[in-house]
Design a protein that fits this description.
This protein is an alpha+beta fold. It is 32% helix and 25% strand.
Length: 330
C-alpha cells in the first residue's frame, strides 16, 4: 500500500535492505526550546567552543545537544505508539532492558544485546548546537525543596536543600539534521511522525524540557549532507548579514526559519551528491499529507502495521538465529 502521493516512490525501498543501498532521507529540523530544558553531563550544561560562523571566524561557546539527547526521546515516543496500538507489549520489549528485536523501534533505531545480537541504527543523529552563544542562551536558577508547610525551616532548623542549576532559556534554537538511511515509505513516516510528536528532551522531562520541533524540509539524496555545526554557522552568518541577530533578546523565530532555509539551500548547492530537496513551499504538501496520515487513527494504525510487518520480515531474514534441526540421521 502506498501512503504518499506527494513524493516519488523511487526514494523508498519496497523492503528494508540488509546492506547499505545509498538512499538517504534527511529531515531538516529546527528544535526550539519552550521552557528551561537541561542538556547536561556530570551536572553541567553541555557546550562546545567553536567558530561563530563559516564567514565569521570569531570563536565562542555554543550549547550542545548531544545525539542521544535527541534520538532517545524520539524513539521512546515511537515505542509508546506501538504499545498504544497493540503492536508490542512492555513485557516482550522494554527499552535498554529487553529488546524484542522484531519491531520498528528495534530495527530502525537499532539495538545491542550482547551475544544475543545487535542491529545498527538506520537513523543518524549528530550533536546539535545553539545558534546563539552559551552566555546568551542560559541562566542560573536557585532551586529549593521546601517542607510541606511551604517554608524552608522545620522546628527551628533551616534546610540545606538549596542548590543552583544552569538552565537553557526558552526560544533557543538548535538546527538538527536527522538522517534515515535506506527508508521504506513506512519507516520514513514512522521516523517523521516521531520527530513531529516528541515534545520533551533532556533531563527531568516530567517537569521541564519542553522543546518544539519545526521541520522546514526534507532532502532525498544518494549520500550524507552537511553537518549540524556547519548549518548552524551558515545560519549565524545569514542572520548577522541581515542584522537579525539579537544578543540580548530572543531571536525572532520567523527570522531564524528564513535564515535556516536560505543557509541549507546554499550549502546543498555546494554538495557533490545527487539530491532532491523539498524546502519551504515545496515541503508544505508533504507535511500536510503526513499530518493527515498520522492524525487519523485508521491510517496511523495501517502505517504502524506496515512498519511492523517490514520489521518482522527483516528480523526473520537477517536477525533471527536459524533454528537447529531436530531430525536424526537414519
Amino acid at each position: 500500500m502506498a501512503f504518499l502521493k506527494t513524493v516519488d516512490s523511487k526514494f523508498f525501498h519496497d523492503a528494508i535492505p540488509y546492506k547499505p543501498m545509498g538512499k538517504y532521507a534527511h529531515f531538516l529540523t529546527i528544535r526550539v526550546t519552550e521552557s528551561y530544558p537541561l542538556f547536561q553531563t556530570d551536572g553541567e550544561l553541555n557546550k562546545a567552543r567553536v567558530r561563530a560562523g563559516i564567514e565569521d571566524p570569531t570563536p565562542f561557546s555554543r550549547l550542545a545537544m548531544f545525539k542521544r539527547k535527541q534520538s532517545t526521546p524520539e524513539r521512546l515516543v515511537g515505542r509508546e505508539l506501538l504499545r498504544s496500538y497493540g503492536l508490542i507489549t512492555a513485557e516482550e520489549c522494554e527499552y535498554n532492558v529487553k529488546f524484542a528485536m522484531n519491531n520498528p523501534d528495534c530495527i530502525i533505531y537499532g539495538f545491542a544485546i550482547g551475544d544475543s545480537g545487535s542491529e545498527k541504527s538506520k537513523v543518524v543523529v549528530d550533536t546539535a548546537f545553539s545558534i546563539t552563544a552559551f552566555d546568551e542562551s542560559h541562566e542560573t536558577f536557585t532551586l529549593n525543596a521546601p517542607f510541606e508547610n511551604g517554608t524552608m525551616s522545620k522546628q527551628g532548623e533551616v534546610t540545606s536543600r538549596i542548590n543552583q542549576q544552569d538552565h537553557i532559556r526558552p526560544q533557543v534554537f538548535f538546527p538538527s539534521i536527522v538522517t534515515l538511511k535506506d527508508p521504506t515509505e513506512a519507516s520514513f513516516l514512522y521516523v517523521f511522525n516521531n520527530i513531529l510528536r516528541t515534545r520533551h528532551y533532556g533531563a527531568q522531562t516530567t517537569r521541564t524540557g519542553r522543546v518544539r520541533n519545526e521541520l522546514i524540509g526534507v532532502v532525498f539524496a544518494d549520500g550524507e549532507i552537511t553537518s549540524n555545526l556547519r548549518w548552524t554557522q551558515a545560519i549565524y552568518d545569514g542572520m548577522k548579514a541581515q542584522n537579525t541577530l539579537r544578543l540580548t533578546d530572543p531571536l525572532n523565530e520567523d527570522d531564524v526559519m528564513m535564515a535556516a532555509k536560505s543557509a541549507i539551500e546554499k550549502l546543498m548547492a555546494e554538495e557533490f551528491i545527487v539530491y532532491t530537496s523539498l524546502i519551504g513551499d515545496t515541503f508544505k504538501p508533504l507535511l500536510d499529507e503526513v499530518k493527515t496520515i498520522t492524525g487519523h487513527e485508521a491510517t496511523m494504525k495501517t502505517m504502524l502495521q506496515k512498519a511492523m510487518d517490514e520489521s518482522n520480515a527483516y528480523f526473520a531474514a537477517y536477525v533471527e538465529k536459524p533454528k537447529k534441526s531436530t531430525a536424526k540421521a537414519g
